[in-house]
Amino acid sequence: MIELFNPANGLGTLQFLARESNRLVLLASSGALSGLQYAERLFPHEDYGKIDVRRITVGVLRQLKELNETGGSPIVFLVADEAGEGKRLKSLRENYPNLTFAGLGETLFPALVARNPGAIFDGVPRKAPCRQITLIFAPPRSGSSFVADVVTHVTGSKAREHLRNEVIEVLASPYKFNRAAALRNFLRLITTPEGQASTKIISHFLQDYVTRVGDLKLVKRVFEGVGVRAIVIERDDKVAQTISGYLASRRGIWHLESGRDAERLEAAREVGYDFHKLLPRYLGYRHQSYVLDFTREVFPDHLALEYGRDIEAGDAVALGARIAEFLGLPWDPSDQLTGRAKLANAENARLCARFRADYEELLGMRP
User: Fold this and answer.
1) Is 62 within 8 Å of 56 (Cβ atoms)?
2) Alpha-carbon distance 265 to 194, whole Å?
3) Does residue 191 contact residue 128 with C-beta atoms inside 8 Å?
4) Are 26 and 51 in contact (CB under 8 A)?
5) Residues near 46 by Cβ (< 8 Å), separated by ≥ 6?
6) Among residues 135, 143, 180, 140, which one has the least CA distance to residue 160?
7) In angstroms, rounded to a whole number, what is the distance separating the alpha carbons of residues 190 and 154?
8) Local mean pLDDT, 10-residue blocks, the chain (367 residues)
9) Is the dihedral of CA 145, 198, 311, 201 positive or negative?
10) How far apart are CA 152 and CA 192, in angstroms?
């Protein structure tokens, strides 16, 4: 599985192992070692030679025994074993209790997803247990980043887009590790001292998870005893949503988060119009609404937000008050919270009008 943890996937495990080689040793089975060598060939980097990797052999186990008998070591031993990481960890911890072991899947994977890989050196965080998690379900280009900013402000827990392709790849891989323990570790890492957690789930990633992993019982088991509050976002104007996604992908600008982004948008050339590329995107966004119907059924008491009605105006204070009330959390109207700048401009309006006209001409109906 280690080959999945690469820069292209946003999980820079190899760089992390190289950077922390003075206090981290990778104990790898033969299969995991082959995966590491494959990843090094696929993503060559001069620092990879710094990684302290040792194949799990009788000789290495003898060295661990000696370290254990002399009182331990400040080194963290990261275990990767495709035949069964959980069993290997259990055996090592029982036989060498004075040493510290962490699992590639069980410990480092959730720490990377939580954007906190250094947490593996601190052990499992002993925070207050998660009391409530806020799940933001949304299709692309629906104002979900703005809502996530507001949820972060209200809960104190950074509402990131944690479920992405690379995470699904790992969860769907044949690598054997304790997925429930990994998700619990992830939940602990994103939980505030006040017991709040939050995450954002884009509809097509939810669909990919159900299709490729499919283990909803796993999620239910991890969330047992945790209050779950769901916010479901929709954007009724699918044409505007389509054009927004099309322009963002062509320009390479998905959000205006800085003055530099605004300058790039201002300098961006007029984007070419291609109805045959827009139509599949439009149909895809319509399909995502059906995916969100699933979340509405699972969480009937969700907070429903619609982009044009609740988000587009960018009234962060009003939205914050509404979300805080829904979550049962305090809200100070004097809190300084600003909305995100919108990317929509005259180009969006022009392309929307053209797409509507072409759609009606082709199909004899309005989109």
Assistant:
1) no
2) 40
3) yes
4) yes
5) none
6) 135
7) 15
8) 49 74 90 75 68 91 94 91 93 95 92 88 72 97 94 94 90 91 93 95 94 87 93 97 90 61 57 90 94 94 96 90 96 67 73 95 93
9) positive
10) 11
Residue with tokens 């909803």: 216
CA–CA gap between residue 263 and residue 247 (Å, rounded): 16
Q: Where are the alpha helices (DSSP H) in the chain?
A: 13-19, 30-42, 58-69, 85-95, 109-113, 144-155, 165-172, 179-190, 203-212, 216-222, 238-251, 259-267, 275-298, 316-327, 346-363
pTM: 0.89
Quickly count: other Cβ atoms within 10 Å of residue 312's Cβ.
17
| Distance between CA atoms of residues 310 and 325, nearest Å | 15
CA distances from 137 to 56, 292, 346 (A): 42, 7, 29
Place of tokens 């959000």: 255
